[in-house]
């Protein structure tokens, strides 16, 4: 379980703030938007331990691709406010080979199988600006928003080979975190043919996430818990949607970003010292989905 400790008041304040902003908007009639789709998530995971008095410089890297589903539920008020939630969940996890090496000589001293699944769910509230004027089919829509991201990473490591010798065992590492989101999205209709009925809209979405609570555990080190909140996620996506009728659109989305954690200091553990290394997940992926408005 994620322990909120001294940061619980921040989480509560942010959740209450988002709820207040969403509910304080005058309750004018608006519309619901639902996205349902599937895609792929490619994750390149890297760890790095710098050379210091405790260790030689060590690094590792692996790439994993997962099949994912995407969902979104949003309510747009007629007064420009919107509130919603969306998420990406891995449903079929791939695996890759993680290689660990001593950088000073470039020697790979360990490799293992890595399965890496990352679930992230965003709740958000924002405001929609339209230029040159609301309702104009040529309007450029600009939508800043804030929110909270819940993130759950699970890494399964098996099939260890150390210095060429197979070693049994399994480790499950979990990284659970909450972060504050600030972002904006924009879209513009580039084709609006009233005769043929074609309507194509394109846009992009940029966001930055500051973690304010994090917990890392590993079954290979029972009782060892890291709660270091220093990190970030920077993410961007582009999309295009074709409006099939007044209620249904078909869409494609491509996204990418980086999840970074600074890691922990060396900590005493069962007569020795261990640390959670600095690590980066560079990711990209795409989704095909249907969009419903009512």
How are the secondary structure elements laid out?
Layout: H1 8-24, E1 31-49, E2 58-76, E3 81-92, E4 96-102, E5 107-127, E6 129-131, E7 140-162, E8 165-167, E9 171-192, E10 199-218, E11 225-226, E12 231-243, E13 248-261, E14 267-269, E15 272-274, E16 278-293
Antiparallel strand pairs: 1-2, 1-16, 2-3, 2-4, 3-5, 4-5, 5-7, 6-7, 7-8, 7-9, 9-10, 10-11, 10-12, 12-13, 13-16, 14-15
Explain the overall architecture.
- The structure is a single chain.
- By secondary structure, the chain is mainly beta.
- The protein has a single domain (5-293), classed as Beta Barrel (Lipocalin).
- 6% of the residues lie in helices and 68% in strands.
- The chain has one helix spanning 8-24, and strands at residues 31-49, 58-76, 81-92, 96-102, 107-127, 129-131, 140-162, 165-167, 171-192, 199-218, 225-226, 231-243, 248-261, 267-269, 272-274, 278-293.
- The strands form two sheets. Strands 1, 2, 3, 4, 5, 6, 7, 8, 9, 10, 11, 12, 13 and 16 form a 14-stranded antiparallel beta sheet that branches.
- A hairpin with a 2-residue loop joins strand 7 (140-162) and strand 8 (165-167).
- It is elongated, with a radius of gyration of 22 Å.
- The relative contact order is 0.17.
Please mark out the parts with pLDDT under 50 across 5 or more consecutive residues, or reply none. 1-9, 22-27
Helix content: under 10%
Helix-strand topology string: HEEEEEEEEEEEEEEEE
Largest sheet: 14 strands, antiparallel
**Can you identify the CATH class?**
Mainly Beta
Q: What count of structural domains?
A: 1
């Amino acid at each position: 379980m994620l322990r909120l400790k001294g940061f619980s008041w921040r989480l509560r304040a942010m959740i209450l703030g988002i709820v207040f902003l969403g509910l304080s908007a005058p309750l004018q009639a608006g519309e619901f938007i639902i996205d349902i789709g599937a895609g792929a998530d490619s994750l390149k995971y890297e760890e790095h331990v710098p050379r210091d008095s405790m260790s030689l410089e060590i690094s590792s890297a692996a790439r994993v691709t997962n099949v994912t589903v995407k969902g979104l539920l949003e309510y747009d008020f007629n007064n420009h406010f919107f509130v919603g939630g969306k998420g990406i969940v891995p449903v079929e996890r791939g695996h890759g080979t993680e290689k660990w090496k001593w950088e000073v000589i470039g020697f790979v001293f360990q490799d293992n199988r890595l399965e890496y699944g990352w679930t992230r769910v965003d709740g958000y509230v924002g405001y929609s600006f339209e230029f040159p004027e609301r309702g104009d089919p040529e309007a450029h829509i600009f939508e800043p928003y804030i929110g909270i991201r819940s993130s759950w990473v699970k890494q399964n490591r098996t099939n260890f080979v150390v210095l060429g010798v197979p070693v049994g065992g399994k480790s499950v590492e979990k990284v659970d975190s909450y972060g504050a989101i600030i972002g904006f999205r924009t879209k513009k209709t580039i084709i609006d043919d009233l005769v043929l009925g074609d309507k194509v809209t394109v846009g992009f979405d940029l966001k930055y996430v500051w973690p304010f609570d994090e917990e890392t555990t590993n079954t290979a080190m029972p009782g060892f818990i890291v709660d270091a909140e220093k990190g970030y996620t920077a993410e961007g996506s582009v999309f295009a949607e074709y409006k099939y009728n007044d209620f249904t659109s078909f869409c494609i989305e491509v996204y990418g970003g980086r999840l970074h954690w600074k890691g922990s200091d060396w900590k005493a553990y069962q007569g020795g010292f261990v640390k959670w290394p600095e690590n980066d997940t560079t990711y990209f992926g795409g989704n095909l989905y249907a969009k419903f408005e009512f």
